Amino acid sequence: MRKITIKNLIDFRRKTDRSKITFLNSLKAEKSVSVEGGGDYWVSCVSAISNAFKRNDKSLLNEKVLEIYEKLPHATANITKTQYQRNIDILESFEDFDLDHVKPSSKIQILRKLKEQSIIEVDGLSIEVKPSHVFSFSQKGSDEIGSIWFVAKLNGYDINELGMFTDILYRYLDKYFSDKYYINKSFCIAVDVVSGREVRYTSLEDGSVRMLLEETIAQINKL
Predict the structure, then answer these.
(1) pLDDT tens per residue, range 128-183
(2) 196: CB partners within 8 A, 6+ apart
(3) Are the C-beta atoms of residues 24 and 220 closer than 8 Å to each other?
(4) Residue 34: CA atoms inside 13 Å, Cβ hemisphere, count?
(5) What is the DSSP string of 87-156?
(6) For the CA atoms of the chain, what is the radius of gyration?
(7) Residue 15's closest CA among 220, 221, 169, 222?
(8) Residue 46 contacts residue 151 (beta carbons within 8 Å)
(9) Model pTM greater than 0.90?
(10) Residue 148's closest CA among 99, 97, 182, 209?
(11) What pLDDT, on a 0 to 100 scale, did the predictor assign at position 33?
């Protein structure tokens, strides 16, 4: 099987038992088809939110909204018009999201993400991990690392599904950054930009969010 994404794992979980094998077979193909129009369907809103976080400037959200509005009249296909409007809706609703709430109080430094560090092996499965940002910061003399992943899906993810992104994100930090930094679990966060929900790794540890990642991979390996 080719590399798989957390979104693929969530789609698998949502399938009926009968359709799960068919779905797994589709993942063996070179490219699977998304009902949302492909991997870049949400790129406008997610990239703008990611930039707003990086630059600490929420005015970038409105700038992106205006940019998409300019494209909207020139879209000839209804699917493209719908895509543009859905991205606009998310950006406008995200104006109320407090980006400082998902940052440490200390100044952060955005770190470079290497392409060759985008795969994590879990129980024999190669999972692609592409966080929005990895950042370092100092706190009480400790050099710490955190990461945030802004994700989107039509109608959003439930809280336990969102926890799967947080789970793999922590494993990613542990594999590639723990030799130099202390992983701050409170700032290992996945944010669903559709619903505004967030899950920190601490919520997985205390059991308030279920750990579904290994359970899901076990189902796949069994099939």
Answers:
(1) 999 999 999 999 899 999 999 999 999 999 999 999 999 999 999 999 999 999 99
(2) 93, 94, 96, 97
(3) yes
(4) 16
(5) HHHHHHHGGGS-GGGGS-SSPPEEEPPPGGG-EEEETTEEEE---SEEEEEEETTEEEEEEEEEE--TT-
(6) 18
(7) 220
(8) yes
(9) yes
(10) 99
(11) 41
